[in-house]
Amino acid sequence: MSAPPLGTRALVLDGGLSNELRALGHDLGDELWTARLLAEDQAAIRAAHAAYVRAGARVVITSSYQASFEGFARRGIGRAAAARLFGDSVWLARAAGAEFVAASVGPYGAVLADGSEYRGRYGLTVGELVRFHRPRVEALAAAGPDVLALETVPDVTEAEALLRAAAGCGVPVWLSYTVTDGRTRAGQPLETAFGLAAGNDQVLAVGVNCCAPGEVTAAVERAVAVTGKPAVAYPNSGEVWDARRRRWRGSPAALAESAAEWQRAGARLIGGCCRVGPAEIARLATALGAS
């Protein structure tokens, strides 16, 4: 286990795990989302990770984004067995050939499976959110990932809770917000959001994910200016989910065309999120000279 080296060149992250699992024929219409396959089909998760490694990803994010002890318990999976599944998520990424493994710690709203990770402001205190996240962090940290990805964070309250939950776990973290219109999803200024990580030596990078590609450059510039740290950037494809029609609309953006700009702005971990598959990660790796 070693933290990813963040020098002048960017490391390529993977793309959307759910995207590749669906491409492999798996139904993810479930409150556990990709984490369901931790209990039911680990070979599928390993295969999806491997597709991104072959495409040029050096950092692979685990399938634990929507995993929780509470969610597993609703499936009759006890605490000890659930802890093993968290650990398996790290092992599966390594077994797929990942050079570095980022253990995903998704937001509380993701576990609710109702879209509230794109709103934030759950009505919970920082302390309540710390108590929810800490067991997940502990289970993942025990499996020895290279970094914890505190990702798709919608608001400052949850970011504070996640940083507290991860404090002292012995694993570096990156903090990544989901944003819209130059603010957190909860409407807070990015200067305030990124400022939580300033001076925190456990945080190796700060940035954005699960957002429109057009949000990235300005957010990365703010993250670097506020924290003095390298940035992480892995946006969605640029398509928009139409909840009423239950389908994606719009055309995907060519992330590879923007990758060099993001790198110049200070991003040192660059990849994709929802609707970004191995083919686009391969193009991104080539654009960054990493293939």
TrEMBL record:
State its cofactor. Answer: Zn(2+)
UniProt enzyme class: transferase
- What keywords is this UniProt entry annotated with? Metal-binding, Methyltransferase, Transferase, Zinc
Enzyme Commission code: 2.1.1.10
Give yes or no: UniProt keyword Kinase: no
The record's listing under InterPro entries reads: BHMT-like, HCY_dom, HCY_dom_sf, Hcy_S-methyltransferase
Q: Which GO terms describe its biological process?
A: methylation
Hcy-binding domain residues are 1-288
Q: Name one Pfam family in it.
A: S-methyl_trans
Q: Which PROSITE patterns match?
A: HCY
Q: A Gene Ontology MF term for this entry?
A: methyltransferase activity
List of residues binding Zn(2+): 210, 273-274
NCBIfam families xref list:
PRK09485.1
Query: Which PANTHER family would you find in this protein's record?
Result: HOMOCYSTEINE S-METHYLTRANSFERASE-LIKE ISOFORM 1, ZGC:172121
Indicate what this protein is called per its UniProt record.
Homocysteine S-methyltransferase
Q: Which organism is it from?
A: Streptomyces litchfieldiae
